[in-house]
Write a structure and sequence with these properties.
This protein starts with 5 loop residues before the first helix and ends with a helix. The relative contact order is 0.10. The chain has a domain at 34-80: Arc Repressor Mutant, subunit A, CATH 1.10.10. By secondary structure, the chain is an all-alpha fold. It is built from four helices and no strands. The protein is elongated. Helix 3 (53-60) packs across helix 4 (64-79). Helices cover 66% and strands 0% of the residues. The protein has helices spanning 6-22, 37-48, 53-60, 64-79.
Length: 80
């Protein structure tokens, strides 16, 4: 461990005060790609009707992996 240097500590605290004037914490933003509850319901309904993932993805203009993830998270959770 190094010795405590009061001058260095003072300079560091002053630097932190300056940074806080210019830095703003990140605001939480809703993800641009987040699905709405209605979209999730539509995907679940279409899957239970027997539609293929690729077909559902084209219909709803989402990625096929999105359809897969909805099925994995929502439908399989209901079956457990």
């Amino acid at each position: 461990m190094t010795d405590f240097d009061p001058e260095r500590f003072y300079r560091a605290t002053q630097a932190l005060k300056l940074i806080s004037k210019y830095w703003e914490p990140r605001k939480t933003v809703e993800r641009a790609g987040a699905l709405t509850p209605t979209q999730i319901e539509s995907i679940c309904k279409l899957i239970t009707e027997g539609k293929r993932q690729a077909e559902i993805a084209r219909m709803l203009q989402v990625a096929p992996s999105t359809v897969y993830n909805v099925e994995r998270r929502h439908l399989r959770a209901q079956q457990a």
